[in-house]
Amino acid sequence: RMAVESLVRLAQLSQDTAFITLRSGTYGVCLHREEGTYPIRSHVLAAGDRHPLIVSAGNLAILATLSDPEVEFILRTHEASCAERYPHLTVEAVRAAVAEARTRGFAVNRGLTFPGSWGIGVVIRDADGESIAALSIAAVEGRLGEERQEFLAAALHWEAREVESRMAALLTPPVGLGQAHRAS
Known about the structure:
Layout: H1 4-14, E1 17-24, E2 27-34, E3 50-52, H2 57-64, H3 68-85, H4 91-104, E4 107-110, E5 117-125, E6 131-140, H5 146-171, H6 177-183
Antiparallel strand pairs: 1-2, 1-6, 2-3, 4-5, 5-6
Helix pairs in contact: 1-5, 2-4
């Protein structure tokens, strides 16, 4: 619920499809998909879809924030199953995408999962700084050139901070609540 407003804004701004993905161990689970208005859409994820953290831009964004040993564990865990299903998704390609995401501050999936379907993603962190989810946008290849990647990454980062603020507000008691509680 805390991310739906952000997804609506991202889908309107980009005209493409926006997603929120929640980390669940070595997997990411798509919680919600918001459609943009561009007539050619990438429907690579639907709400409820569960994929290894090496599949999709949102998952790659999360993966890039993990330690090298965690990344290698996830690659080894899912390498065989993904090789069969996604032949472009090699260990080398994922390592390169992780390195790029660490440098740029956002992940780009250049058709590794499905040729022609590109995605861009950023992480959402909890109050302890742990990467717990990701916001992402998927589009056809021609809509995610370098210049547009920078523009969309900025929008994704802004919305990720908005979601983080909403989550933090849930954990912060209203002003005066603690004082009133102590007085009783």
